[in-house]
Amino acid sequence: MKIKFKQAVLTAASAAMLGAIASPAQAANWLMLQGTEPADAAKRAHVWGFIQAQWQKDTSDACKFAPCTDQYIPPKLIGPNLTSQEAFNVNRARIGVRGTGLPLDSKVNYFLLLEMGNNAITEGTGAFAKATDASITLNHIPNARVRLGLFKYPGAEEGLQAIHVFDYVNFSEVTNQLLLERVPNTDGAENENLYPPGQGGLLGDEQNGFNNGVSAFRDVGIQVFDAFKVSNWEHSYAVMYGNGNGLNLSDNDDEKDLYLYWSSERVYGGKGPFRQGLKLFAWMQDGKRSLDRTNDGVFNPEKYDRERSGLGVKYLKNAWRFTAEYMQGEGMIFVGPDKPSFDQNGTAGPAVGDGATGEASGWYLEGGWRIPNSKWELDLRYDVYNRLEGDALESEWLTTTLGANYFFNKKTRFTFNYALRDVDSIKQRDAGVAPLTPNPNNNMQTIEDRISLQVTHIF
Amino acid sequence: MKPIVHRLVAVLLALGLCVYSLQASAAEKSFAETKVVLQISDNDPFKQTLVLNVANNLIKHYGPDQVDIEIVAFGPGLRLLFAENVNTDRIQSLVDNGVRFAACNNTVNGMSKILGEEPVLNQNAVRVSAGVVRIMDLEKQGYQLIKP
């Protein structure tokens, strides 16, 4: 089923690419917004950035049963530090510069962005700042712009879109767990143990088994892309070949990732991130990862496939916004945040809870309404994530997020989210399946709601 | 020697044709009561948008037949008249309403040295020998200079 779905995505993308005979587009989409500059109208160095300050409170209860009595797992704690259930945080503080080094030549442009906030990109790295984007785009070949360096790979809407205009505080659960990649440790340190040091311990213990930052939907590599206008439609494509090693600037093995992306958008008007239109898109990623599962202190990894694909639609016109996206994955399924690992069953072997070769899928529906003649926007999102499908430890994550945005001005807004979470290890919950010890539902069924407040300022 | 003379004659003919073209366009609006020359000489992309907005607002206020507008680009502002400039559609719209665009030839020559080749200009841009001289000439003819 999954192979057929991927083939369908590839066939549709290939047919659309071959069928696109049109003039280059001037208006931008995410690919164009992030990878190009307006022709002959860009600065030599445009300095910009944004700050997000937030407060979050998690209302989950501690585990009530042995052997996890009074313990808290990561989804019950506030990330990235996972040391409390209520915290202020400067989640993102980014500053960047972009433009054309030689303004007379718009054939070349660049994009550099540094992260100085406290999040899964920077946590544990010990660095003052981490580069999230450092790319050069060459616009010399008609219909085939070339982007090189570190940048967002073409993929799912939540990951590809600019985070400072994201309508919610947190990603949907399916995006967070299936797509926001946790890069395995490369020093032989455990990253798949059932309870790594401190994991599953008392509130305040170190909970993160990985010693790398997340991939942040980015990779280092080369991308060929462009956009074309055909009447009122804009078609875009991207083909990327990258290390598959997240924000790390070099590769950790000889394996490379292939990314394909296609979108077709009926453009209604406007420009930039709030351009109005109806966009259909499909994408896929295919690569391998080196994962050390022996937990013997020696880095002796094996190769595992990591495949992701999805399709979706986004509509934005006047006061209304609507998005729907389905995505699925095979291999390297992150089985945290229940446990920060690729193998929930750890040393017991891969027969149960094997995230390295497991499958997962999910989808989300979301919408927003900008209240006319006011500064308020109301948002609602429902997302479903099925992790380790067919496995005895298959879990279902259902999240409904109620949201509101208040816009102080075009550059500053306040975001309120209330996330209602319902999580079950469904086969352990349902009758007829022998319960595992410990039963993951002892932890999962006490995952409760989360309140998030955030102010975003763009400069 | 002959090729140099031929080139010189060709350049002079081309410049002469440009001046004639600008004068002919201006003559079509010689009865306009309001005459404005807009200067764009800044590298800031926002200034490109601003000068086009000002021209558009003048046309909306006076009407296309009652205002005579010429936009003179020189120095870093010449980027506005590059063929692939993102504002090409807006420029065409203004041309359709009688706005003229003049490109400084001195700037073109200077940029050619930096780029290693001559920049391709918008087909609506008419070259003048020097942008500043063009502005001074227009002022003598009663045009008001505005530098947005």
Layout of SSEs?
The complex is a heterodimer of chains A (459) and B (148).
Chain A: H1 2-19, E1 23-24, H2 30-35, E2 46-58, E3 86-99, E4 108-115, E5 130-138, E6 145-152, H3 157-160, H4 173-179, E7 218-230, E8 233-242, E9 257-269, E10 276-291, E11 302-317, E12 320-330, E13 359-370, E14 376-387, E15 395-409, E16 412-425, H5 426-429, H6 441-444, E17 450-458
Antiparallel strand pairs in A: 1-7, 2-3, 2-17, 3-4, 4-5, 5-6, 6-7, 7-8, 8-9, 9-10, 10-11, 11-12, 12-13, 13-14, 14-15, 15-16, 16-17
Chain B: H1 2-28, E1 34-40, H2 45-62, E2 67-73, H3 88-96, E3 100-104, H4 105-115, E4 125-128, H5 131-140, E5 144-146
Parallel strand pairs in B: 1-2, 1-5, 2-3, 3-4
Helix content of chain B: 40-55%
Counting DSSP H or I runs of 4 or more residues, the number of helices of chain B is: 5
* SSE sequence of chain A, one letter per element: HEHEEEEEHHEEEEEEEEEEHHE
Placed side by side, the strands forming the largest sheet of chain A appear as 2-3-4-5-6-7-8-9-10-11-12-13-14-15-16-17
DSSP strand count of chain B: 5
Mean pLDDT over all positions of chain A = 87
DSSP helical segment count of chain A: 6
What oligomeric state is this? heterodimer
Structural class of chain B: alpha/beta
Indicate the radius of gyration of chain B in whole angstroms: 15 Å
DSSP, total strands of chain A: 17
Q: Give the helix proportion of chain A (percent range).
A: under 10%
Mean pLDDT of chain B: 87
Distance between the termini of chain B: 46 Å
Residue runs with pLDDT of under 50 for 5 or more positions of chain B: none
Enumerate the spans of chain A where pLDDT stays under 50 for 5 or more consecutive residues.
12-28, 193-204
Biggest sheet features of chain B = 5 strands, parallel
Fraction in beta strands of chain A: 35-45%
Using a beta-carbon cutoff below 8 angstroms, give the protein chain pair with the largest interface and the number of residues from each chain.
Answer: A-B, 13 and 18 residues
Structural class of chain A: mainly beta
Q: Report the end-to-end length of chain A measured between terminal Cα atoms.
A: 46 Å
